[in-house]
Amino acid sequence: MIDYTNEIDTLLKRLYPITRSITGNGNRETLKILQEHIPLKIIEYPTGQEVYDWTIPKEWNIKDAWIKNSKGEKVIDFKNSNLHIVSYSIPIHKKIKWSELKNHLHYLEDLPEAIPYRTSYYNETWGFCLSYSQFLNLDSKLNGDEEFEICIDSKLENGSLTIGELLIEGKSKKEYLLSSYICHPSMLNDSMSGVIASTFIAKELLRDKKNLEHSYRIVFVPETIGAIAYCANNEKAMKSIKNGLVLTTCGGLGQYGYKQSWQKENFINEMIEDVFEENNIDFITYPFDIHGSDERQYSSQGFKINCATISKDRYYEYKEYHTSLDNLHFVKAENLNKTVDLYLQLISKMDKNIIYKNLQPNCEVMLSKHDLYPKTGGAILPNSTLSVLDLILWSLFYMDGKTTLYEIAKKLDVDLEVLYKEALKIEEKNIIKKVMNE
Ligand code: ZN
User: Fold this and answer.
1) How far, in Å, is the centroid of ligand 1 from the Cα of 249?
2) Distance between Cα 20 and ligand 1 center (Å)
3) Which residues have beta carbons under 5 A from ligand 1 (an ion)?
4) From ligand 1's centre to the CA of 194, what distance in Å?
5) How far is CA 83 from CA 132, 199, 280, in A?
6) Strands 256-259 and 215-221
7) 190 CA from centroid of ligand 1 (Å)
8) CA of 396 to the centre of ligand 1 (A)
9) 40-43 — which CB contacts under 8 Å span 24+ positions?
10) In angstroms, what is the span from residue 375 Cα to ligand 1's centroid?
11) 44 CA to middle of ligand 1, Å?
12) How many angstroms is it from 311 CA to the middle of ligand 1?
């Protein structure tokens, strides 16, 4: 098993405090930190660019924000938590009565110690978020006439939306998509767990690049608008992709699960279940649903990419979701490292899911002539009842230019890795060749 625990831990702590949103310098800073690990290209899409039915919004940046009471004491301070501000809040600096200020405050009565995460991307307004206990503490001491000074030192102006992209070229131009989103401020399982997992997966793929059968398109985008903008700016490449992974909420304390791709019978879903079973992990199955993350865009009618997600405490389902409690206590580097390892096991299978065509379909091949006839007869393959000879004969029987290696492995009940290794040997003798129409 890979062990990136220490590097993941360092990255979690560095990325956690950064103020991110769908645009802004925090996203650039995040991508620059990722560049220390992988050679990401940073791309900017300008404000106002039309991307399908959407428009790239103004860029939002914030320096500071606070609420001061009548004694001049800061009762809410952005410097303590970037979640205190509704993301995309417009700039404001004025005195305001408590009775009016209350209309701009967000809290969670059923989670009194948590600061909620709120956004207002497409409606120009402002607001503060605080824990319910903070709110009660203020509210109990005041009558509505008490005056507060509020300040949000933000900028909402023409700029751009930032994304990160890494293309890893394998032997075939056929690509798999890996997508994670960079738009959440100080929360870890939602957003950063997927970003970090994607980073270390990319690092491992680059390490073994010369052996990759497929190519990989790895993108880091703000959720929704970023995925839409990426599709619009890379339409041809994206329309040729058939499978992908959307990485998110994969480092919590709870149970593993996976969200199926839009075609339930697609191989990617079966492979994920194989990986869980091979690792003796109990998992929850979430059928495809039009809600969720960026698979909403990638699975839309124009693209139809079969995208799946491995989760550990999936979005919507854990109580810390979209609050200040989705923090370093909730996401541990050891857990995230384990998820990276599971994803790598999955990608190893996906990578080897190729199609071969038997170039000598007329009757049997004379194996001894090609030095393929096993010298010692009867050797049985690991975890199988088949001998090497059987495996070669069955492979040649099934390799019709349409059946994938994964399908053949299932038919023969052998490990895909074992079948792949044998296939490479037969390919070397020019008896079979890879075909692209997987
Ligand atoms: Zn979220």
Assistant:
1) 9
2) 12
3) 190
4) 11
5) 14, 25, 38
6) unpaired
7) 5
8) 48
9) 40/164, 40/165, 40/166, 40/220, 41/164, 41/165, 41/166, 42/162, 42/163, 42/164, 43/162, 43/163, 43/164, 43/165, 43/233
10) 58
11) 22
12) 14
CA-angle at 60, arms to 161 and 158, nearest 5°: 65
CA of 379 to the centre of ligand 1 (A): 53
Beta strand pairing call for 175-181 and 215-221: parallel
Q: How far is the CA of 57 from the centre of ligand 1 (A)?
A: 19
Question: What distance in angstroms lies between residue 191's CA and the mean position of ligand 1's atoms?
Answer: 7
Encoded amino acid at 256, one letter = Y
> Residue 153 C-alpha to ligand 1 middle, in angstroms?
24
The CA 303 to ligand 1 mean position distance, Å, reads 23
Count, residues in the chain: 438
Domains of the chain: 5-57+160-351 (3.40.630.10), 60-157 (3.50.30.90), 354-437 (1.10.10.10)
Please report which residue ranges of 145-266 form alpha helices under DSSP H.
193-207, 225-233, 235-239
Burial class (CB in 10 A: 0-12, 13-18, 19+), 362: exposed
Q: Pick from 172, 173, 157, 149: which is nearest to 67 by CA?
A: 149
* Digitized pLDDT (tens) for each residue of the chain, 438 residues in all: 899 999 999 999 999 999 999 999 999 999 999 999 999 999 999 999 999 999 999 999 999 999 999 999 999 999 999 999 999 999 999 999 999 999 999 999 999 999 999 999 999 999 999 999 999 999 888 877 899 999 999 999 999 999 999 999 999 999 999 999 999 999 999 999 999 999 999 999 999 999 999 999 999 999 999 999 999 999 999 999 999 999 999 999 999 999 999 999 999 999 999 999 999 999 999 999 999 999 999 999 999 999 999 999 999 999 999 999 999 999 999 999 999 999 999 999 999 999 999 999 999 999 999 998 887 666 777 777 888 899 999 999 999 999 999 999 999 999 999 999 999 999 999 999 999 755
What is the distance in A from the centroid of ligand 1 to the CA of 262?
A: 21
pTM over the 0.90 mark: yes
For residue 271, the CA-to-ligand 1 centroid distance in Å is 26
Q: How far is the CA of 102 from the centre of ligand 1 (A)?
A: 25
